[in-house]
UniProtKB/TrEMBL annotation, chain A:
ATP-binding in keyword set: no
Topological relation to the membrane, as annotated: Multi-pass membrane protein
PANTHER family: DIPEPTIDE TRANSPORT SYSTEM PERMEASE PROTEIN DPPB-RELATED (PTHR43163)
A Pfam family assignment: BPD_transp_1
InterPro entries: BPD_transp_1_N, MetI-like, MetI-like_sf
CDD domains: TM_PBP2
Cellular component terms (Gene Ontology): plasma membrane
Subcellular localization(s) per the UniProt record: Cell membrane
Keywords: Cell membrane, Membrane, Transmembrane, Transmembrane helix, Transport
Official protein name in the record: ABC-type dipeptide/oligopeptide/nickel transport system, permease component
Transmembrane segment boundaries: 9-30, 95-123, 135-159, 202-219, 264-287, 307-328
Major localization class: membrane
MF terms (GO), sorted A to Z: dipeptide transmembrane transporter activity
Organism name: Roseovarius mucosus DSM 17069
UniProtKB/TrEMBL annotation, chain B:
Name of the protein in its database record: ABC-type dipeptide/oligopeptide/nickel transport system, permease component
UniProt xrefs under InterPro entries: BP-dependent_transpt_permease (IPR050366), MetI-like (IPR000515), MetI-like_sf (IPR035906), OppC_N (IPR025966)
CDD domains: TM_PBP2
GO CC entries: plasma membrane
UniProtKB/TrEMBL annotation, chain C:
Membrane topology field: Peripheral membrane protein
Keyword flag Acetylation: no
One CC-aspect GO term: plasma membrane
Localisation: Cell inner membrane
Protein name: ABC-type dipeptide/oligopeptide/nickel transport system, ATPase component
Listed GO biological process terms: transmembrane transport
InterPro entries for this protein: AAA+_ATPase, ABC_Ni/Peptide_Import, ABC_transporter-like_ATP-bd, ABC_transporter-like_CS, P-loop_NTPase
Length: 335, 305, 279
């Protein structure tokens, strides 16, 4: 098992190096002079410009700059934001929990609803439930979520006035940041209404973010269940006189989950892309909005490191999914 | 199953009769899927709208009617028969902008899929055909591209290249290309083991001829399905880039860009937000419905005997 | 009195090209403690009729019968719960592909203990003890280790033994074995057959053996039903069948046995059929 994990891990190293090269070289060709940007409105004399360039290492040959970048990366130094002057990693870590909270909620919604719908659609194949849910799944799969988010805001915030339009919690509440998850922190604070406020801020963005993964998971679960239910061992379970809930919920579902777990894992990348749009629409202070803002402000170090961190994150999640796949599929585990 | 194996079997496609039978069989399976046929009809309508946009559209998409700002659709209170779907914040006719927007979406889809398809096929063929270290290096590079969330990578690419429609299309095509490369490579590697390839090689076919004339036609099925899916994703992603201000620039009537301009009016004028998104959804849905039908008709594994 | 009695059973499948009749007016009856063999080539509907009894056919199948009784009880329209009390307790079944018939995601122990706990109400501990006993009874070597193995870690023969252990776990009165040895190596086939016969005798249960192998029939059965293209060709006790086959199809089947072959080529059923028709 340890060798299995290790081999998977080693396999990732070349990909990771590739990611650093891409993150590094992209930002090198971004238009705009970082030194001028740092100097801000006042401008800079040519002497001061050269001095700053040397200080930042921009006068070095590009290959040296790359190895310098890689070396500092390995020490956890990702440079400072040109706009806020704070270390990029600190900014990332401050904003990261917001995205995780949003993404986690979305993936939980998508998995719970998606798997349930998929299983029932498969059992009742051809029924009105199957047809309607699979049509809706295709609509969800085709949904421009930035528009979907706006529609939900129009309806729930504009017409019904039920949910707030943006942010993570009402300004009325202030409490210490313990876990970084607003839902948990608001509970810990013990302030009346804080949790409800956090929840009402979270519900629409996570629904929007969950839409596409939900559709994909429902479709995948249905087709996996249909395939598995034709297998000999499901017939055996029936021949053993097992009740329907055990035949479907244990014998069939357990095997159908093998491809579904892979699908859920693959949704993490989709989720990160979705987070960029969702966070922009709902002004959610997370990584996605941070990246968009940094791109439009040409904040080189942030774009560079953000790109790198997100790709590394997706890579690690995919590795974890791979390992889970090994765990839930005994046929792989033994090898 | 015996009939359906035509698609994958090493049949020389020279005979027009065989080709006609394959087409008839394809159409049989495709037309069994009601959703696919609906998708096809909507898509054809969309293409016609795009082609004849200049004739159908009641107004010029960029003309600003200063006396008619944010006019609601004709059926709503305060609507005006001159502007069937209302006007936007600077008095442009929504319907005309939506009609011209179809041109953008289809154009983007075609360009992105063409670039990604051609690039992916060439890269995949090289990797699958030569194998060894060439394969290793190429596929590693594809892995790296796939490690990034596609929209994020496209965003940064556009930021590097400069915002605009052309750059957005190039960026999306680059991000999609590995999927085609992987598919082609896998198909090539499985086809390479078949006897007909060996036979062609023995008969003295050169590498290029082998790659493009012998092997490629037999891997087309999955590529066509992937192309359809990429087409719909391209429409979605380019709209997303437009929405984020990185795609087509105002005053282009691109649907995503229109949404971006409409954002500040969402609580005042629902129509400026609703219609462009609906147009995106319907187009993407139609293409995806077609994609489902194509997959059923082209994938012999799923066919019922 | 017959344990299982079926009269005029017909099974039709709805397919894309119309209705297909897999079983056409078959009568089957089996007495307590009797071994009945149902013989026929693949596609003769011999499995389908038994799957119909078990209620294991897909929804596309339409089952009709004049009579369908088990132990004098009508089983043609049982509710799902009533059927479950019969299937897996009184009537059990084993299948052709033992490895595919066991769930790859669970240990074989889980799959047998599940039956013991749910059908017989044993506790977790009792179920484990009883499962080990059953594994010993069907001749699985080193049952304490094997009970925690997954199906893919065992050979086909061992998997079939597990299936048999599951099938006899609730002391059934009727065991249906659908081509139980076809997917196994020749040397294992004999062992599994011997095991089935021994258990049949020990437990005094009735056994319906579905097979295409006349050799298996000769060794095991009391009575034989020969089926061809969904119809019953012949029914006889095993001795008279082999000595004086009545239907031309049975004669054809018997002539296709290697030990009856004359000349340098093994005859096939269709060879004989064409001869019979020519006569």
């Amino acid at each position: 098992m340890i060798r299995f994990i290790l081999s998977k891990f080693l396999y990732l190293i070349p990909t990771f190096i590739g990611i650093t090269i891409i993150a590094f070289s992209f930002v090198r060709i971004l238009p705009g002079d970082p030194v001028l940007l740092m100097a801000g409105e006042r401008g800079v004399t040519p002497e001061r410009h050269a001095e700053l360039s040397a200080q930042l290492g921009y006068d070095q040959p590009i290959v040296l700059q790359y190895f310098d970048f890689l070396g500092r990366l390995l020490q956890g130094d990702m440079g400072n934001s040109l706009v806020t002057k704070k270390p990029v990693l600190d900014e990332f870590l401050t904003l990261f929990p917001a995205t995780v909270e949003l993404g986690l909620c979305a993936i939980i919604i998508a998995t719970v609803i998606g798997v349930t719908v998929g299983v029932f659609a498969a059992i009742k194949r051809g029924s009105w439930f199957d047809q309607i849910s699979m049509t809706l799944a295709l609509v969800g799969f085709s949904m421009p979520i930035f528009w979907w988010g706006l529609l939900l805001i129009i309806f729930f915030s504009g017409i019904l006035g039920w949910t707030p339009v943006s942010g993570r919690i009402s300004l009325l509440y202030y409490f210490p940041n313990v876990t970084g998850f607003m839902l948990i922190d608001s509970l810990l604070s013990g302030q009346k209404g804080a949790f409800t406020s956090a929840l009402s801020h979270l519900i629409l963005p996570s629904l929007v973010l969950a839409t596409i993964p939900l559709a994909v998971i429902a479709r995948q679960t249905r087709s996996a269940m249909l395939e598995v239910m034709g297998e000999d061992y499901v017939r055996t379970a029936r021949a053993k006189g097992m009740p329907q809930y055990r035949v479907i919920g244990i014998h069939a579902l357990r095997n159908a989950m093998v491809p579904v777990v892979t699908t859920i894992g693959l949704q993490i990348g989709v989720l990160m892309a979705g987070a960029i749009l969702t966070e922009t629409i709902f002004s959610w202070p997370g990584i996605g909005k941070w990246m968009i803002d940094s791109i439009s402000r040409r904040d080189y170090p942030v774009v560079q490191s953000g790109l790198l961190l997100i790709a590394a994150l997706v890579m690690i999640v995919n590795l974890l999914v791979d390992l889970t796949y090994g765990l839930i599929n005994p046929r792989i585990r033994v090898k | 199953m015996s009939e359906t194996s035509n698609l994958a079997a090493p049949v020389k496609l020279s005979d027009a009769a065989i080709r006609r039978r394959m087409l008839a069989e394809f159409w049989f399976y495709f037309s069994q899927n009601r959703g696919a046929v609906i998708g096809l009809v909507v898509f054809v309508l969309l293409v016609l709208t795009a082609i004849f946009a200049g004739i159908i559209a009641p107004h010029d998409p960029t003309t600003q009617y200063r006396e008619a700002l944010l006019v609601p659709p004709v059926w709503a209170e305060g609507g005006n028969a001159q502007f069937l779907l209302g006007t936007d914040a600077v008095g442009r006719d929504m319907l005309s902008r939506l009609i011209f927007g179809a041109q953008y979406s289809l154009f983007i889809g075609i360009v992105v899929v063409s670039i990604a398809l051609v690039g992916g096929i060439i890269i995949g063929l090289l990797a699958g055909f030569f194998g060894g270290w060439i394969d290793n290096v190429i596929m590693r590079m594809m892995d790296v591209i796939l490690a990034f969330p596609s929209l994020l990578l496209a965003l940064v690419l556009v930021a590097v290249l400069g915002p605009g429609l052309t750059n957005a299309m190039i960026a999306i095509a680059i991000v999609y290309q590995p999927h085609f490369a992987r598919l082609t490579r896998a198909a090539v590697m499985s086809e390479m083991k078949r006897e007909y390839v060996t036979a062609a090689r023995v008969a003295g076919a050169g590498n290029l001829r082998l790659m493009f004339k012998t092997i490629l036609p037999n891997c087309l099925g999955p590529l066509i399905v992937q192309a359809t899916l990429s087409f719909s994703s391209a429409v979605l992603d380019s709209a997303a880039l437009g929405f984020l201000g990185m795609g087509a620039q105002p005053p282009s009537p691109e649907w995503g860009t229109m949404l971006a301009e409409a954002r500040e009016f969402i609580l005042r004028a629902w129509w400026v937000v609703t219609f462009p998104g609906l147009a995106i959804l319907i187009s993407v849905l139609a293409i995806n419905l077609m994609g489902d039908g194509l997959r059923d008709a082209l994938d012999p594994k799923l066919k019922r005997s | 009195m017959a344990l299982l009695n079926i009269k005029n059973l017909t099974v039709k499948f709805a397919t894309a090209t119309g209705s297909f009749t897999a079983v056409d007016g078959i009568d089957v009856h089996v007495d307590r403690g009797e071994v009945l063999a149902i013989v026929g080539e693949s596609g003769s509907g011999k499995s389908v009729s038994m799957l119909a009894v078990m209620g294991l056919l897909p929804d596309t199948a339409t089952i009709t019968a004049d009579e369908m009784t088990y132990d004098g009880r009508d089983i043609s329209d049982l509710s799902a719960t009533e059927r479950r009390h019969l299937i897996g307790r009184e009537i059990t079944m084993i299948f052709q592909e033992p490895v595919a018939s066991l769930n790859p995601s669970f240990t074989v122990g889980f799959q047998i203990e599940e039956v013991l706990r749910l059908n017989l109400g044993l506790s977790r501990h009792e179920a484990r003890t009883r499962a080990l006993d059953l594994f010993r009874a069907v001749g699985i070597p080193d049952p304490e280790t094997k009970i925690d193995a997954y199906p893919h870690q065992m050979s086909g023969g061992q998997c079939q033994r597990v299936m048999i252990a599951i099938a006899i776990a609730s002391n059934p009165r009727l065991l249906i074995a659908d081509e139980p040895t076809t997917a196994l190596d020749v040397t294992i086939q004999k062992q599994i057959l011997d095991l089935l016969m021994k258990l049949q005798e020990d437990f005094g249960m009735a056994l319906i053996l579905i097979t295409h192998d006349m050799g298996v029939v000769a060794e095991t059965a009391d009575r034989v039903v020969v089926q061809y293209q969904g119809k019953k060709m012949e029914e006889a006790d095993v001795l008279s069948l082999f000595e004086a086959p009545q239907s031309p199809y049975t004669r054809a089947l018997l002539s296709a046995l290697p030990e009856h072959a004359t000349g340098d080529r093994l005859p096939t059923v269709s060879d004989f059929f064409s001869q019979e028709v020519a006569r």
